[in-house]
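User: I'll paste a sequence; please echo it back and then give the predicted structure.

Assistant: Echoing your sequence first, then the prediction.
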Amino acid sequence: MKKLITILAIAFLYVVPAQNKEVLEELSKLKQYEVELFSKLFSETNDYSEALVVINKKLASQQLEINNLKLQLQKYDLLKIELDSIKLRLKAIENNDTIVDDPVKDDPIIGPDLVIYGYGKNTVGGTGGRLIPVTNLNDSGEGSLREALESTGKRQVVFEVSGRIDIVGTTIKITDPYITILGQTAPGNGIILSRETRDRPILEIDTDEVIIQHIRFRRSTSYRSGNNQDNVWVNSGKNIVFDHCSFAWSSDGNLDLANYDGQPGRPPRIEISNVTIQNCLFTNSYGGSNKTVLVSRGATDISWFRNAWIGTAQRNPSVSTPVNEAPTWDCYYEHINNIHYDFTNGPSYTNNDPSPDAGIYHVNVINNIAIENTTSGGIVNPNVENTELKSRRWLRAKTVGNGMKIYVEGNITPYRPSESYDQWEIGQNGGGQADRNKLIPENLRSYSVNNTPIITDGIQLWEATDIWENLKTHVGASLPKRDDEDKRAVNDIDNGISTENKVSNVFPFD
């Protein structure tokens, strides 16, 4: 035990010399059983970061002020900050705080405490890699975000500045694997990424093992013409996670997951897989179509879990197979515990390719809530017989070729306001408002749940009616603090109104 403390103390003396006295004092304050707990975990894993992760997962209380420590993170302070977090967490044990094994109850989760659900659950990102601090808001050059993201090797990107980074050069491309981007480490207001004047998206991912947390993607202040005015493209890669990110103000789409480099023609292999999008907030885009998330060209194994879609019209998400572009493999998706507010379409699954060897979609749509907003303000909760309800049904599915296996359960929507209604009242067979009474046909339905990871892992799900209360305090890029766009969107749901501006907006801060 004394040997462990000595080793740690020597490490601190070299890494954080200015604070070694304070560190040693903190070590001396730890009770013997606290040190033994850390020592046991450290000796079992021989990995400081892994020991910290194990301790993090054992604690139920998320009220400790770890977030405040993270906001002060600097290049040479990481070990001191982690030591403080260990001390606080172990203090919780001393105080007999309740310990739970169910990570569902630990939300919100950030930084080293991150719990990933769904298909991206095995993603490691840059955990254990070197720290790369972003020290300015420049588009390129030393200390820039571009330099950090386009670097190589296992890396963790942290921020010593806050504000808006406008990408005026080429799209930033992440092409080397094992990276974690920690937006919550920024001081002040946090980070906004924009791209006011150029074609193509802000960010493109072309690699494996990527984790992005607490970043705001705000494409531009007004509509930009063209088909490439997106916030983010995932062009290729596996094990990719977006956690607590905010997406808005694009002119074509907020987030696309499709290998566009392979067009045209049928995709020859799986380019995108094992993706989780969780705790994210999607708000309005520009133009009449107001698009959000597109999935195409055989991207598979994708989880949408506990996200908020507010004032987004279409592609929420849209999983689509164009003519002559169907993959030959089956594709798997899960859309669970999401909230949709003021929408035109909810999730859409469409196959436009009649090829007999086309793969099929396996989809779980479980325990989501969709709330429609009236033009006069307020929330409408009609029943199925309400003749004034003329909107599209929330879920859409259609094929011109092979069938699908879509399973639905526990969803609350305007056409299904309670559990007394048939599960399938939530969806229609593609089309628009005129097709709202054409329910999803039998060849697209599954009456048994698909084996997707949130289900097979036995994750505790929220009831649909509890989703917003559980999400609203932390969904989106909520650390270090929310910006005005996200505050506006959250307020819309709370007050049953719609205030999104689909023509022009002003960046909350620069």
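The longest helix spans residues 78-94. The chain has ten helices and 27 strands.
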